[in-house]
Design brief:
Elements (H helix, E strand, L loop, with lengths): L3 E2 L16 E2 L7 E4 L1 E2 L18 E2 L2 H11 L7 E5 L8 H14 L5 E5 L2 H5 L3 H10 L1 E9 L3 H6 L6 H13 L3 E8 L7 H15 L3 E6 L7 H8 L7 H13 L6 E4 L10 E4 L3 H14 L14
Helix pairs in contact: 1-2, 2-4, 7-9, 9-10
Length: 304
């Protein structure tokens, strides 16, 4: 699961955050409510976020105490449920949590959450319909790759079919779907195959949002061990940009906002698909053919 570390605003100082708290870039203005600690899967080879953090679901009492602390702040319109996959919380707890959010913030417009394929598919269509009615407005799903071999190698915990089924279940409930993919995760050797397959699976998912991040090799992860042994070779800058172009070229979606503006990426894009697809491919082509490094994010500004 990829995301952005959430800086804790001073106004949230009384809320009992534990450890690193991450959220999607698009949730920058949201109140972060820590419903779970860590990630129920926590096996992805590239992810360092929750290593050493034992997964647990916080008690309703703890969550209600945090909401009581946050209740004095006006104008809260969005709430993001952390940590890694808060959608894994059973209905008997998740419904009261969302009801308490609605009671605490009368102006609430949307509640967002990370969900992996397992946590989504554990929810019945009826449960997702109920969560939608209560205000769950968007689910962020980390696909990472559409290549079955890559999904197995990175220990994602779900195959392509499960990913696509999970995406459709979210959409059938009328909940917005944001899908994350990882540029470079297949290494230099598998780069183009991964890109082509990822674009094809994105087409099957047809999400509302696609966020492309670039993999960063973080010490202490299994991916870093593979990198040190020579088993995994990160594509160079040109290879990463070419891969991004192939993902875009093979993505045939109906109406989607595609972004690669996360700090990990070299080329920040924010485009509407399919309308601006050719324009984006042209920009990537210019960077590759004319070496337009002025369009790229400098290395020292990249990060998780």
């Amino acid at each position: 699961m990829a995301g952005t570390a959430a800086l804790r605003p001073l106004s949230y100082i009384d809320m009992k955050y534990e450890g690193i708290v991450i959220r999607p870039p698009s949730e920058a203005g949201s109140l972060i409510l820590q419903v779970t600690l860590g990630c129920s899967h926590n096996r992805c080879t590239f992810c360092p976020t929750y290593k050493g953090k034992r997964f647990r679901i916080r008690s309703l009492e703890e969550i209600r105490e945090d909401l009581a602390c946050a209740s004095r702040y006006r104008g809260v319109k969005r709430v993001f449920l952390a940590d890694g996959d808060a959608l894994i919380v059973p209905r008997r707890m998740l419904v009261p949590i969302i009801e308490q959010i609605n009671a605490t913030f009368p102006d609430i417009e949307r509640i967002g959450v990370y969900g992996n394929a397992k946590s989504i598919l554990k929810k019945s269509p009826e449960e997702l319909d109920e969560l939608k009615r209560l205000g769950l407005g968007i689910v962020y799903l980390g696909l990472e790759s559409g290549d079955p071999q890559v999904l197995a190698e990175i220990q994602k915990g779900a195959d392509v079919n499960a990913m696509v089924e999970a995406a459709h279940r979210i959409q059938e409930a009328g909940i917005l779907l944001s899908v994350t993919v990882l540029v470079g995760i297949a290494g230099a050797q598998g780069s183009i195959r991964h890109a082509e397959q990822t674009g094809k699976v994105l087409s099957q998912m047809n999400p509302d949002y696609i966020g492309a991040l670039t993999v960063m090799v973080v010490p202490g992860t299994v991916l870093a061990q593979r990198h040190e042994s020579g088993d995994y070779i990160l594509p160079d800058t040109r290879g990463l940009l070419a891969e991004l172009g192939v993902i875009l070229a093979h993505s045939d979606v109906t109406d989607c906002l595609f972004t690669s503006n996360h700090a990990s990426n070299y080329l920040p894009l924010r485009i509407r698909l399919p309308q601006e697809k050719e324009q984006a491919l042209s920009i990537i082509g210019q960077v590759l053919s004319a070496n337009r490094t002025d369009l790229l994010r400098p290395e020292h500004l990249r990060g998780l």
